[in-house]
Amino acid sequence: xxxxxxxxxxxxxxxxxxxxxxxxxxxxxxxxxxxxxxxxxxxxxxxxxxxxxxxxxxxxxxxxxxxxxxxxxxxxxxxxxxxxxxxxxxxxxxxxxxxxxxxxxxxxxxxxxxxxxxxxxxxxxxxxxxxxxxxxxxxxxxxxxxxxxxxxxxxx
Length: 156
Description:
Elements: H1 19-23, E1 26-27, E2 42-44, H2 61-66, H3 71-76, H4 80-85, E3 96-104, E4 107-113, E5 117-125, E6 129-136, E7 152-155
Parallel strand pairs: 1-2
Antiparallel strand pairs: 2-3, 3-4, 5-6, 6-7
């Protein structure tokens, strides 16, 4: 007997535990475009900027192993480039941009933030620990100063 549901890929089985979004103040307004965001550490992002025909150009075996993935797991999944470009969300992912403040060019700049970086969530495992997945260039955030056309994934 054939199952009507397809098997989940290794990427789709990642366990997200988005602690930062649970413990820190989050702006949930969803208002598009660059703006001032008072009193929040993160702003939820309603939609990401999909890329046309994203493709994988490099993989880090050591970074993937931190997530409990192998290079083969990633290469076997036809949606990998969409997931890691931010064009499609992984199950459990909660896109947000991080707000921060600081000094630029010797002066206090006030509100800064991830203008083109999206927090996708924190992947957690008993064996590998907790790792934050981010995607660079996935669209405009409240902290954007310019628009990026390129996308790549960062693990922290």
